Amino acid sequence: MIRTGKWFTQKISTIINPFVSHCSKTGKMTGIRNDLKRSRFFFPIMGLMAIVWFLIRVVPKPDRAAYPCQRAALGIGGGFLAYVLIFLSSFSLAQKIRRHFAVSMVIASITVCGLFGGIASVITDTLHAETAVVALAPPEGVNQPIGQARGIHPGRVVWVQDFDATSWDGEKGLWWDEENTDQQIVETMFSKALLSLTGENADSAAWDALFRYHNKANKRGEQGYQKDETIVIKLNCNTDGTPGERGKKKGHASTQVVYALVKQLIEEAGVPGANIILTDPSRHIGNPIYDKIRSNPKPDYQRIVFAGKEDRDVPQYIYAEPDMDCPIYFDMPDGN
After folding, report:
1. 99 to each of 25, 89, 106, 112, how far by Cα in Å?
2. From the centroid of its chain, how far is CA 182?
3. What average pLDDT is seen over the chain?
4. Which of 262, 274, 334 is nearest to 299 (CA)?
5. What is residue 7's predicted lDDT score, i.e. its pLDDT?
């Protein structure tokens, strides 16, 4: 769709430019040139081309009518047909014909408009039918959560959205590159989510509330973070197939979000960097996350531990060795 749209736009621009005038400052098209005799043929040619292009592209596959280039063609073609009808109705010969063949003229006009409009209507209906979303009807009913609500505010779920956080065009660079994701906006979003989840007014107070709730829920007393406690963060690095690498343009833990979390723990929650472990025991932690955190020269950031499926000859990166003396048993779907 993108290639076709670009090709169509380039071809149309090549054809149009000789016939139109442009603003000297903005370069935008301002109208059709009247100093060229061939300009009188410009609009009819464009109208016919638009109609032909629309029919060739859309009739075999109706959902193409939603493409920007086809919408433009529909507008140009429809405008041309309207122009033809108005022109014929005012032309002296047409007036004579209309006096003798009034009924035929009306029928022909209605047929032309109806044909083009009917095609557009059918295509629109087809698109609506194909894109209709079936309303979900959960068996438990609407707004009837399943299970027991948990959390510092039981059942509360928060989310934050900011379209300025990312700017990747899908082609230049990769989505996790610094120039494609705004670290400051991501950190602001992280803070908003944290405050909304806890109901606190400051990040430090929010972390303290979370730690107190966690410790109390696990029968450790209502106390905040203790300096000898280790924080282990399980990342999802499924696309990091080889050491230091990560699958291009695939989903995985966001470099900027991981950094925002680490920064919050160190600078707001008071967790020493040496007590923070970032891990995915069955995967490698790719360079984007590792390099991003290690680029901060502060001691706490330099002491953070990275634990992956294999040891690497780089600082603070270790093998996530399993503890064979502490097995975990769980039921498999087949009953084992």
Report:
1. 50, 11, 11, 20
2. 15
3. 77
4. 274
5. 55
Other beta carbons within 10 angstroms of residue 306's beta carbon come to 23
Q: Say how far apart CA 245 and CA 227 lie, in whole Å.
A: 33
84, exposed or middle or buried, with CB in 10 Å at 0-12, 13-18, 19+?
A: middle
Is residue 197 a contact partner of residue 152, using CB atoms and an 8 Å limit? yes
Report yes or no on whether pTM surpasses 0.90: no
| Residue among 264, 156, 152 nearest 212 (CA) | 152
Of residues 121 and 52, which shows the higher confidence score?
A: 52
CB 27 within 8 A of CB 64: no
Sequence-separated (6 or more) residues with CB below 8 Å from residue 310: 243, 284, 319
Alpha helices by DSSP H, 62-164: 68-90, 92-100, 102-131
Which sign, positive or negative, has the C-alpha torsion 90, 20, 43, 75?
negative
Q: DSSP letters along 144-194, please? A: ---S---TTTTT-------GGGB---SSSS-TTSGGGB-HHHHHHHHHHHH
Which of 13-27, 122-136, 276-290 tops mean pLDDT? 276-290
**Residue 91 pLDDT > 50, yes or no?**
yes
